Amino acid sequence: MIIPKLHYITQGNSPKVVLDNIQKACTSGAELVQLRLKNVSEKKILKVAQAAKEITAHFQTRLIINDYYKIAHEIKADGVHLGKLDSSPTLARKNLYSWQMIGGTANTLQDCENLIVKEVDYISLGPFRFTETKDNLPSLLGLNGYAAIIDALQTEVPILGVGGITTADVSNLLETGVSGIAVSGEITRDFSNIRTFNQLLNASSTAEQRYTFKQ
């Protein structure tokens, strides 16, 4: 399963704004959108998820649902992303189609190891720096934190950086060994940043290939 290198995590203070932002993200070239709605009833999330699925399907953008794996199953989204206090990936796996991806949130090496045992398809590891999207933020990792954890893990599971990441951070972050990034604020502020992020993320893989061929 190939996990896109850039995940856009939705923002917006109402379902309408969230859906508008999904439309803008897809128009700007987002490969994957994570629908994240907090403090809304499950019934309302299902409705928004169905609308989000219509938009993303039109652009052939992948859609994953934050937390609600039953909704991800019902609307045949591309997968689910589970926070640390959400359901276990093992439970979600039993209730999803075999082709649906499962991502998990991690803040520490131990979190990552637990998720790998539960066979997640990717891990969002953070926070990189301070971000207002989350309350009760765990300790910040910074570049050294990522490098240390990825070095210790030696895993094939893609690790994504998350938490206040800007376009200026991408090249340094990639040097730590992350496979990609999940971004919310920097994209919601300016959707043209998606193009910049995509260029920075893809440029790195072509540069690496060139480097390998020389050897």
Give a nutshell description of this structure:
The protein is an alpha/beta fold. 45% of the residues lie in helices and 16% in strands.
Describe the structure using short key phrases.
TIM Barrel; disordered C terminus; 215 residues; alpha/beta
In CATH terms, what is the architecture?
Answer: Alpha-Beta Barrel
Count of the separate structural domains: 1
| Helix and strand composition category | alpha/beta
The name CATH uses for the topology is: TIM Barrel
Anisotropy-based shape: globular
Number of strands: 8
Q: Specify the number of helices.
A: 9
- Biggest sheet record: 8 strands, parallel, barrel
CATH level 4 superfamily = Aldolase class I
Helix content: 40-55%
Quote the distance from N terminus to C terminus.
28 Å
Strand order of the largest sheet: 1-2-3-4-5-6-7-8
- Order of helices and strands, N to C? EHEHEHEHEHEHEHEHH
Uncertain ranges: 206-215
Question: How does this model look, in words?
Answer:
This protein has helices at 15-27, 42-59, 69-74, 89-94, 109-117, 142-153, 170-175, 185-189, 193-214, and strands spanning 6-9, 32-35, 62-66, 79-82, 101-106, 122-125, 159-162, 180-183. It is built from 9 helices and 8 strands. The protein has one domain: Aldolase class I (TIM Barrel, Alpha-Beta Barrel), CATH 3.20.20. An 8-stranded parallel β-barrel has the order 1-2-3-4-5-6-7-8, surrounded by 4 helices. Helix 1 (15-27) runs parallel beside helix 2. With 215 residues, it is α/β, with parallel strands linked by helices. The relative contact order is 0.14. Mean pLDDT is 93; it is low at 206-215. The radius of gyration is 16 Å and the shape is globular.
